[in-house]
Amino acid sequence: MSRFVCATCGVQYEETGAHPPEHCLICEDERQYIPDSGQRWLTTERLAERHHNEFRRHEDRLVGIGTSPTFAIGQRALLVQSPGGNVLWDCISLLDEFTEKTVKEMGGIKAIAISHPHYYSAMVDWAEAFDATLYLHARDRRWAMRASSKIEFWEGEELDLHDGLKLINLGGHFDGGTVLHAPFLAGGKGALLTGDIIQVIPDRHFVSFMYSYPNLIPLPAAKVGRMAARVHELEFDRIYGAWWDRLIPTGAKEIVERSAQRYQRALES
Predict the structure, then answer these.
(1) First CA to last CA across the chain, in angstroms?
(2) E strand or H helix at 42, and its extent?
(3) Helices 252-268 & 221-232, crossing angle to 10 degrees?
(4) Is the separation of the CB atoms in 69 and 51 below 8 Å?
(5) CA dist 46 to 3, 72, 191, Å?
(6) Which end of the chain is more exposed for a tag (fewer CB within 10 A), N or C?
């Protein structure tokens, strides 16, 4: 039995035998897309034949894990190293023997938390390999394409993990859109790990917010305002986005506030 992975979004589906699923429900949603060439699938075994994972240390207690060559959306995961247990933020589609061995040497994984369904990838493989609890917001329950006893669907606006780590439901891109607040990162000034719920853009003086990034569908101004108000309650100086180079090293809190105001002005003018 093979598990198939969507080549466009990287999300892994339940076992379906020798034939892939007929549809990728995530890519058929208006926040994603089916390429002109049509729906394509890879097995997890075929993915491992063509790709490998790289590890890069971002700072003292934060390591990135990304797939090369780039696959699907191309996000990298972040391993937050913490005394109470490591947390994997967001996820990727490839989990091979080298990756599993390397992560275990770094202390393993206690918890996995994911910003939104586009990065669900092979989350169940990762959770089961490391005996980790997988935290998904209940508002995005319908997008979980593999069932597992490791999944905990949490509800509400916040969820405390351990060592001050906290999940915050901002909504936006997806109703369950979540960011991770890590107060001990950025030299103790705090960091937000945002995926693309808050998008780090090429102009590092700003961030952005969207309902659909590939299809350029904006969010309502009022919703962006609510997201910014929630973020204002947090203490942080740095933002890590979804890709290797998407980083705001300092002044991130002010940048989010300024960006939300600019976004609202653009939509309301």
Answers:
(1) 55
(2) strand 41-43
(3) 160
(4) yes
(5) 10, 14, 36
(6) C
Element (H, E) at 97: helix 97-105
What tens digit of pLDDT does each residue of 200-256 get?
A: 999 999 999 999 999 999 999 999 999 999 999 999 999 999 999 999 999 999 999
Write out pLDDT tens, residues 27-83: 999 999 999 999 999 999 999 999 999 999 999 999 999 999 999 999 999 999 999
Distance CA 54, CA 56 (A): 7
Question: How many CB atoms are closer than 10 A to CB 265?
Answer: 10
Query: What Rg do the C-alpha atoms of the chain give, in angstroms?
Result: 18
Domains of the chain in start order, with CATH, are 4-268 (3.60.15.10)
**Tokens at 30, concatenated:** 């208006």
Give the pairing type, strands 238-241 and 191-195.
parallel
Query: Distance between CA 21 and CA 40 in Å, rounded?
Result: 10
